[in-house]
Amino acid sequence: MPAVRNAIVVGAGIGGLTAAIGLRRAGVETTVLERRSTPDRLLTGGGFMLWHNAVLALRELKLDQAVADAGVEIVYHEFRSDRDRRLARWDVAPEAERHGAPALGLRRSALNAVLMEAAGDVRLGARCASFDQDEDGVTVTLDGGETLRADVLVGADGIRSTVRDGMRKGHDLPLRYAGYTAWQAITRLPGEETVPTGTFFNLWGRGGLRFLYMRLNEDEVYWDAITADGAGASFDMLANGRRDVLLDAYRDWPEPVPRILASTAEDAILPIGIFDRPPDRCGGWGHGRVVLLGDAAHPMTLNLSQGAGQAIEDAVALVRLLSEHERVPAAIRAYEDLRLERVAGMVGTAWTIGAMGRWRGRLRCAGRDLFMRAFFDRVGRKQSYQQMMDVRF
To answer: Where in the sequence is the signal peptide annotated (predicted)?
Structure first.
């Protein structure tokens, strides 16, 4: 890797750890800085999907099997209505065979554990306060005044990135709020008859409500209740806890939705406001010897289950291009040229799908369900896979 002898990665999330693994395996002395102070705070989070493209990217680092062993293979993606009508059912297994990689459901903490083990040392409790760069390198200053020097600085520190803010000197367009909240949790709910292993369920309802769920293992189920602001405005969060509010909102939904909610501990439910950066607000991802990846560069809504996958693709592409170019700025420009169009398409598609989930009127939602029944099994599936598997790393 002629351009880079040493690197600093800020953020020990999925993208940052993947980049650190790739850099270290390429012979680059790499320091990973993470503001969270203890390992247990890194190994948190709910469940999520890793589609075939993400598994193929992980294969570049020989991590795909370890990640597959930590999760469960998804063989069906089923779309249903809140009146228990099937809207579409995608057979994922033939696509896994075609592309040579499975789709996986797993705990976020399980993926982080695999990446942490492969990445090696991470400096916990180390927050990047600022940085300066010159023609020869980047100097990072930590809280407390310690300075570190490297050939390249990789900002993988999330949606409210300190590195992004420093690169843009505080002049950045705001994040775009999607208009809905994702209430996420993992609950203990054994029983294949309740939630069968291998199917990712994607339920669309009236009144601005959606519900996603899948089995993570023989004992646990991950779920995600997505509530548009118009629905959430009626929630009485003063008189009721999160579980009771959601139980009331989804009281007329088909089983196992009420049972999943009832089985969940109150303190396991985490509400997350959903934001993204539309392509015209993303701007460049790099300047000189500083570069962004994952949510620091291009946060997207959850509707394609591609946030983690695109961060992994970013990291693999960046490491390869740094190894191919003799100058860091040239490698970063090549990385942007390779990745921008693909990610912009993902951001836009995810936003459009999420906007459909905010619809509240009965007639409009009925039309949406009719459209899904007519087109999702063939046209929607084909278009989704075309976009997903146009991999660029």
So the answer is: none
